[in-house]
Design goal:
This protein has 373 residues and is α+β, with helices and mostly antiparallel strands. The strands form three sheets. It has a seven-stranded mixed sheet. It is elongated.
């Protein structure tokens, strides 16, 4: 009888758990997780079925709002090895990812698993990064990546990545990544992350700590010897409608006035534009580091303002480094160079009822300009 690849159901759970038990000694998927993965969501669990017997499975995750797929787990029963089950599962996983217009598919494999590494190499997967002590047994993982669609970043070199260390410092983390993209020997630190936040914070925002103002980040970049250009679609005080109470609104307005005075004194360029899709594409086409304000709604269904670093862009995709700590089962490397269709990014790059848009472009200051200053 032939082996068929189909979607897993709740009736497969016992067989999947038995297969998981026999295939892995650590890092096993639980019954509760399998139950979640056989329901609808940003994932796809496929099983290899032969006359009602489950010979293997593959679990593919899709990060909402992006064009990134990740093979979270793949397993084949011992009795089915050598029958091409793993190849069938991998092929169907890529087809599912392709149908969802994913640009890249990634996976992790133990560095000691030479058979799996050989299979993935045969399928065209290439090393993306090595994850130290990734598995419960202390072993390293090789993270592999395969391009599924034609468009690619202008540069294939790994973009600098820094994960924010607090819930409110996405702006400084993104700015430090942009600075590192221009100055290769620059090393971000948690101390500077907090210092930039102190310089650029709005004091208040939504219900928690204040995030960073577009104007404040521009001032911080200037203080560190870079040439910032701020593109923004309003001359009003940013984030004013995100807080309640006249006292908080008054504080935000005073902070913004201070940033405007510093920007004028430093002669920082601020360009007031509508920031339509065409204008955003034009800014990204300059191939300079960009720190972008987005709403996280498309990523995690939370309407929160968030700063990200744009590492690359082309006509079809924007590649972002998201400094936000990842939610399980995702990991930090899945938040690096994440591909987003341009039209999705344009919708994402807007926050609040007033549709605030802000892009901070960074460039180096020339030696002559430094001397004149």
């Amino acid at each position: 009888m032939t082996i068929s690849i189909r979607a897993g159901t709740r009736f497969d759970i016992d067989a999947l758990l038995a297969l998981e038990q026999n295939s892995f000694s650590t890092d096993r998927i639980s019954r509760r997780s399998f139950m979640r993965f056989v329901t609808k969501g940003a994932h796809s669990l496929l099983v290899a079925d032969k006359a009602g017997e489950i010979l293997g499975y593959v679990l593919v995750l899709f990060r909402s709002g992006t064009s990134l797929a990740r093979i979270y787990s793949i397993a084949v029963a011992d009795a089915a090895r050598g029958q091409g089950v793993a190849s069938k599962l991998l092929t169907h996983a890529e087809l599912i990812a392709d149908k969802r217009y994913c640009l890249f598919i990634r996976l992790e494999v133990h560095t000691n698993n030479t058979a799996a590494l050989a299979l993935y190499e045969k399928f065209g997967y290439k090393s993306f990064t090595r994850l130290k002590q990734y598995y419960e047994d202390g072993g390293d993982a090789e993270q592999l990546e395969k391009r599924l669609l034609l468009p690619t970043p202008r540069s294939t070199a790994p973009a600098p990545y820094y994960q924010q260390t607090t819930e409110f410092t996405c702006g400084p983390a993104s700015l430090m990544m942009a600075m590192q993209a221009l100055t290769k020997d620059y090393q971000p630190t948690a101390q500077e992350e907090l210092q930039i936040w102190r310089e650029a914070t709005t004091i208040f925002m939504t219900a928690g700590h204040g995030g960073c103002s577009p104007h404040g980040l521009a001032v911080s970049a200037h203080h560190r010897g870079y040439k910032p250009i701020l593109y923004i679609n309003t001359d009003e005080t940013p984030f004013l409608d995100s807080v309640r109470g006249e006292d908080k609104k008054r504080v935000l307005s005073l902070v913004h006035k201070s940033f405007e005075e510093q920007i004028e004194a430093a002669n920082i360029e601020v360009r007031l534009q509508n920031l339509t899709g065409t204008e955003i594409k034009g800014i990204l086409s300059k191939n300079l580091p960009v720190v972008a304000l987005i709403s996280t709604w498309m990523l995690n269904r939370s309407k929160a303002p968030h700063w990200v670093f744009v590492s690359n862009a082309n006509e079809d995709f924007v590649y972002i480094n998201d400094p936000d700590p990842p939610d399980a089962p995702w990991q930090a490397d899945d938040y690096r160079r994440a591909p987003i269709p341009v039209e999705n990014f344009v919708r994402m790059a807007s926050f609040g009822r007033r549709k605030l848009r802000a892009l901070l472009v960074l460039d180096k200051v020339t030696l002559d300009k430094r001397e004149n200053e």
